[in-house]
Predict the structure.
Amino acid sequence: MKKSGLVLKSVMMLGLLALTANLAVAEERQEDHDALRLMLKTGAEALNTRNIEGLRPILNDPFFITAIDQKTFTDLGQFKSYYEQFFTGDKAPLKSITFNPVAGIKTTFIAENAGICYGTSGDTYVFKNGQSKQMNTKWTATVVKTPGGWKLA
C-alpha cells in the first residue's frame, strides 16, 4: 500500500472515531437538554401567570436576573416587587404579559455542570387601556447543575 493511501485511511479513521465520540456525548447530554427545555417552560409559565414564587425551584443560589430595562436582581422578593409594580397600583400600566421564549441553540456546556444558551422571545404586552403590543426580544442564560437539578444562575 502506498504511503499516501495509508495516511488517508488513518485520517479517515481518526475522523470516524471523533464523530462517534461526539455522537455519544450528544446522546449522553440529551437528558440534560430535555431538563433545560422544561426549565425554560417552567420559567415562562411562572412569569406569564405572575407566579414569581414558581421561579424559586429553578433558580440557583446565587442567581442574577436582568430585566428588559437592564435592572439586575439577585433576590426573588425584590424581583417579585419589581414585576408586580407593572400590574398593581394606580399607575400600573399592564393587564398581562405573555412571554414565548424559544431556545436558539442547545445549551453549550462549558463544564460538566455548567452551560450557556440564548434565544428569542415573542412577547405580548396587554395594557390596561386595552391596547396590546408585540415585542421581539433576545435572552441569554447561564445554567448550573446542582444536586437538585439544573438551575438558572
